[in-house]
Design brief:
Cytochrome Bc1 Complex, Chain D, domain 2; two-stranded antiparallel ribbon; mainly alpha; about 0% strand; about 260 residues; extended
Length: about 260
């Protein structure tokens, strides 16, 4: 004790004790945070699921059933995953008021938080595709524009047009334009296959190939119309027909005017 008492009055004893106290407090806080964060995360997830359940019962259950089992006018949502809910509700396609041939995109009814809660609730009842994270959508780093263009022309151009402008399908359906569509929704559409679109699983198109397609679509979206009016980039046949119609019409008009003037 006399040994400790002698060094207690040393001029460096105070700073050393302060550093030791700060170290002890920091260690205690880190341990406490590590033990409470999972509980808080689990609590937040449970809260989101409960909120999503309330939203589903009020806005979706009349068509999709109280237990997501579906009905005569709406499919079952068991196993569709959070990605499908995020796409359909986030793009305003659901809830739908007009059961026409094809459901169109419109302003969303719910905000991002409500969409996330609804997706969490549906995903909690049965496994399915998850919502892609921002880290998994880094198409600028992981995608290839050249490869994406080739993949798009092989797998997507027959419906969405070779320039991703959209196109008509059979029985009054259509493939919407991809211009201005967020990368997240493009990825979710490929994964879930909404409406007439087929599902492109990771065996059909790898995650890297999907990022390449997204990168190519974004490149087309940002590409300027160097030739003047793009006419919607619907293709050379339509654009050529327009040019021929206007050109021939102009020539006929000039010929008629010259004939009438000659009289």
């Amino acid at each position: 004790m006399k040994y400790l008492s002698r060094y207690r009055r040393h001029k460096s004893a105070g700073p050393l004790l302060l550093l030791f106290a700060l170290f002890a407090i920091g260690t205690t806080f880190s341990v406490a945070s590590a033990t409470t964060t999972p509980e808080q995360s689990e609590f937040s997830r449970s809260t989101a699921i409960e909120e999503g359940r309330e939203i589903f019962l009020k806005g979706c259950s009349s068509c999709h059933g109280l237990n997501l089992e579906g009905s005569a006018i709406a499919p079952s949502l068991l196993g569709v995953g959070a990605a499908s809910v995020d796409f359909q509700v986030g793009t305003g396609r659901m809830p739908v008021g007009d059961l026409s041939v094809q459901i169109m995109r419109k302003p969303p009814v719910y905000d991002e938080k409500e969409v996330a809660a609804l997706a969490a609730y549906v995903a909690s009842l049965a496994p399915g595709p998850e919502i892609p994270t921002e880290a998994s959508l880094n198409y600028e780093r992981d995608g290839s524009t050249a490869e994406g263009g080739e993949l798009f022309r092989t797998n997507c151009a027959m419906c969405h047009n070779f320039a991703a402008q959209g196109g008509a399908l059979t029985q009054g359906k259509y493939a919407p334009t991809l211009m201005g569509v967020e990368a997240k929704y493009i990825a979710e559409a490929m994964t879930t296959g909404p409406q007439a679109m087929p599902v492109f699983s990771d065996k059909t198109l790898t995650p890297e190939e999907k990022l390449s397609i997204i990168k190519w679509v974004k490149a087309v979206e940002a590409e300027p119309a160097l030739g003047g009016a793009s006419l919607g980039r619907v293709g050379p046949v339509t654009e050529g027909l327009l040019v021929w119609t206007l050109g021939i019409g102009l020539l006929i008009g000039v010929a008629v005017w010259l004939a009438m003037k000659a009289r």
